[in-house]
Request: fold
Amino acid sequence: MPVVHAPATVPSAPPTAPHATVVIDVADLTYTYPGGQPALRGVSLRIMEGEKVALVGPNGAGKSTLMLHLNGILGGPASPVHICGRPLSRDNLPLIRGLVGLVFQNPDDQLFSPTVLEDVAFGPLHQGLPEAEVRQRAARALEQVGMAGFEGRLSHQLSLGQKKRVAIATVLSMAPALLVLDEPTAGLDPRGRRQLIGLLRDLPVTMLVSTHDMWLVDELFPRMVIMDEGRVVADGPTPELLAQPSLLEAHGLESLALPHH
Amino acid sequence: MNANAFDRYLERASAVHRLDPRVKVIVTLAFIVAVALLPDGTWAAYGAAALLIAATTAAARLSPGLVLRRSLLGLPFLLAAVTVLFTVPGRALWEGPWGLVVTDGGLVRFSSITLRSLLSLGAAVLLTATTRFPDVLHALRHLRVPAVLVAIIAFMYRYLFVLVDEAQRLLRARAARSARLPDARGGGSLAWRAAVVGHMAGQLFVRSLDRSERVYHAMQARGYRGELLTLAPHVMRRRDWLALMIGGMAIATVTLVGRIA
Amino acid sequence: MNIIPAGILLHIPDGFLNVLVSAVCWLLTLIILGIAVANTRRDLDERLVPLAGVMAAFIFAAQMLNFPVAGGTSGHFIGAALAFIVLGPWLGLLAMTAVIAVQALVFQDGGLLVMGANILVMGVVPGFLAWFVYRLGQGRGARAQTLLAGTAAWLSVVVAALVVALLLAFSGTSSLGVVMPAMLGVHALIGLGEALITVAALSFIRRARPSLLEEERSVGAGGWVVAGLSIALLLVLFAPFASGHPDGLEWVAESAGFLSTAQDAPYSILPDYTVPFLGETGLSTIAAGLLGALLVAGLVFLAARSLRRRSLV
Reply:
């Protein structure tokens, strides 16, 4: 049975070996936007090394806000977020931003440099790596996403699918312990979507991916977390959660109605 | 339209294209200053400068017609200079109505302004057509233009394309909703039409502001803490120094011809 | 959509200003930009670059929004007033500077040697003027604020045109007596479009993000430097004409003590400048005015035509 739990009671069963390290540890995170609008109400989440987890829920559920907390863009020094065992203190921030590769939904926000190389090099350069290493990492990251040879291209001349892959490369070049992707397949045509799914499947990195694409969840992510109204409302193995159409519908999600479920 | 349509860079396999952008920026600026300093009526010097433009055009494998066409862009401005035909004292060449007299001095001055303007524009057109804008920015940074300004211009260049596409969508949405009878001018009063544009501008502003916030987050997420680091992509090679020398000598020659004539 | 947006009459190409005028403009611009960078850096810190960059792109894109006026021409806006009002003067100036730099470097819209002058003409002078006029409305009723915002936008265009005419006259590229009234006349009309668009944009922003326009933005000490520089510039520009000297340029040259230098120099940095047919009879003044008006009208027409030809939609 999947764990369908109240906000504050956490422990989700880690499917990996017990000695695996905890990559994300969020304990009872609450956040209210400056306008007074509550976005997160006691979110707890724990993700182990090597896990690929889908984060689903309707728009405004708090998924993006949670993601912004994971590398300290939101949340102060008292943030109840630990990444690889480290608290999000001011001193830890540069390190944690290297550990958490955050890829925004719109690649035009993510790719802010005129050329592809400059963008992929931005992260490692700001980690303080020497130039030779930065170039090496950039080349490797582009190769990983199948965009080798695009170094000199202008970002605005890429297709959406290419932009999304370069956006992933911009964080892979930082050698993160964890990839956090916001809606990676949104807006892609079927071929672009297939390529991206293939890429996500082959990347040997811990992943937390927010998406509305339930087929993607079913295909790629063994574990699924459902958020609604700033809370985690369900957390468990994907096949079991997908087998509960009433749960999905209650939180504005599509049922796949697959024959094998 | 895709905003790429207005990229003015023209890819060619030419020695001029491969030159270090710093050389091209310096030579272009020196050329423009030298031309501005040429006295009126130094036709031989204008000819020498035109020869320099023509030779560079050929070396860059660009079509002379195209360079000329683009150089004519500034021509409407010439009308502002037409008055000098009548106001510079000299021998009367032609008497028009209302006591307006075209003088030889006026004609010399007007032609000189025209030619100097065309020559300067030609140089700028060549720089743009043979150098990608990110490379121009690198050159400016190496030439001690304040880093903050260069960075702002780089961001502007990147988001120019994104926001122009967005403006385009707004215009298209307006077009889709403005049905027009064959004989009517349509679209309401002039003030109303201006107000519609104003609202579009306001909308674009709010969206842009939100985007700048997301871009800032994306930068933070990759370790940006106020200081922008960049790769050093260009190294001056022998042929760059050679080109700089030749360019300098050619410009000196133009200046010299102007002084002797 | 037009590739080259509004304000083509205000983008001075290279070749129209002499080296001295260009250099003085660059100097003034650099001083003011230095203050702008220092102030915005202090206030915005690391947010400055993405904010100013994206906002500059916004102004560039907004300049492409057009509305049909008549006879195939269309109205655009320049945006200095809006930029300074919504972003505050320093950030507004940096954004306008980036716009002008990209227009010159990428689209050859405006020259390089004269870029300093163009930043003065389209950024510093109209922007600060609009900002100060708009600020007069703070704490007043909505109608007064709207009226002042419109006035600010209108003035920004007219004053930009005035400065272009003065710079051209100083460079001996055109005669002030003809071009100034013509430029002012045409831009008084263009300014109306600017005012309408700016007011409508502000009203939209006020409804969508009320907090943005309520923020108190101070100019800081640098504002006085700019005000001082602007006043000094205007005095230098206007003094000769106000004092009744027949030849303003020579008067300035003489009083600045560089006339002899200019004459001895290998290049005629200050070319001859005379207005032979002005002031003699009323008729010739009217004729000159008419000619000027026709010229600028033709200029607008040509600009509009060339814009239309480059339309991509």
Summary: Residues 19-225+276-309 of chain C form a domain with the Arp2/3 complex 21 kDa subunit ARPC3 fold (CATH 1.10.1760.20).
